[in-house]
Amino acid sequence: MDDAIPTIDLGAWRSASPQERRSTATALDRVLRETGMFLLEGHGVPRAAMDDLRARGKEFFALPHDAKKPYAVGASYESGWLERHPGGGVGVPREEGVEPPAAPDLHESFYAGPAHRTGDEAVDRYCYPSNRWPDPVLPGLRPAVDTYTDHMQRVAHSLNELFAQVLGLPDDFFTRRATRATWTQNVSWYPSLNTVGTVASGQMRNGPHTDLGTFTILSRQQGVGGLQAWNEAEGWFAPPYGPDALVVNLGDLMERWTDGRWRALRHRVLAPSPSAPDEELLSLVYFFESDPDTLVEPLAPPVGGGAGMKPVLARRSVLEKLGVHLDATQFPA
After folding, report:
1. CB crowding 6-35: b at 16 or more within 10 Å, else e
2. What does the DSSP assignment read for 195-238?
3. 304: left (phi over 0), alpha (psi -120 to 50) or beta
4. Crossing angle of helices 141-167/47-61, nearest 10°?
5. Distance between CA 17 and CA 223 in Å, rounded?
6. Residue 302: is the preceding peptide bond cis (ω within 30°)?
7. Which of 29, 173, 182, 199 has its CA 20 to 30 A from that of 153?
8. Global pTM?
9. Tens digit of pLDDT for each residue in 215-231?
């Protein structure tokens, strides 16, 4: 499948001739229709920023349980530490109609989000929750997240422009709807088999799902028990890997926005393998949405796919899929 998942170079795209852009746009449109992912190079994110956040994240996950517990997530929309234990933590919503696994996913995560505040208690709680920084025990994590997410926000706006250009929309179609966007930076640790001990039947590091926002920017490590993507032609497959490349995958909101022309990537992370019992992986996952009150109206054909999807409010849609149901008195309609 390596040839079917293109690598897009942002710098080359910006300097390309009209003919070169048409060729790249055709390849990108095809894979977003079929699978919902591609690799990104020329993004300008320094390797040092990736390495530093990975190192600080690894330090956090290595802390004793009691040292991490004060930063535990208590609700699905909150920032902080997602604990890995039976019946604990707040997991990724599973696909509709699929039975939840008997055992939890084999990972821990630390979540952080934007520091933006509106002054409206409900909006801030559900859209811009306060970060739980472990400054007393690990003061280096906050600056590492801040540095990395500054780059992620820049790349996200570049991707929004790229998507608009591929669809033949005004360049600012998505960016003008993302001036105070909701996003989450996730540092996820996938422990080794020797660390977890045993793996239950059907248990994975991260079970099959699609992401909830417009798109996700992933810096991953390659592994035996690593990322798999799905499409109808191939089923589950291991996507190509580049140590400096970012993976971009579409989420549910972008599938709805394009009315089914593009699809949200269905993906999973395999269980740790007996063939690599010491393998542990650490992913940097940036989930990007839009302004929380954006009305995501499916685009009409020929830009949209004609699936007949209904409009949704961006952040309300995400919250509802996280199991948070609010009326207009609790959260803006």
Report:
1. bebbbeebeeeeeeebeebbebbeebbebb
2. HH----TT--SEEEE--SSSEEEEE----TT-EEEEETTTEEEP
3. beta
4. 130
5. 37
6. yes
7. 29
8. 0.93
9. 999 999 999 989 999 99
AA letter at 298? P
Q: What would be the CATH architecture of the domain defined by 2-290?
A: Sandwich (2.60)
Confidence of residue 96 (pLDDT cuts 50, 70, 90): low
In the chain, the amino acid numbered 55 is A
Over residues 35-57, the pLDDT tens digits come to 999 999 999 999 999 999 999 99
284, β-bridge pairs: 187, 219
Q: Which residue has the tokens 């994590």?
A: 141
How large is the average pLDDT for residues 273-277? 92
Nearest to 304 by CA among 248, 265, 263: 263
Cα distance between residue 100 and residue 176, in whole Å: 38
Nearest to 110 by CA among 163, 175, 168, 57: 57
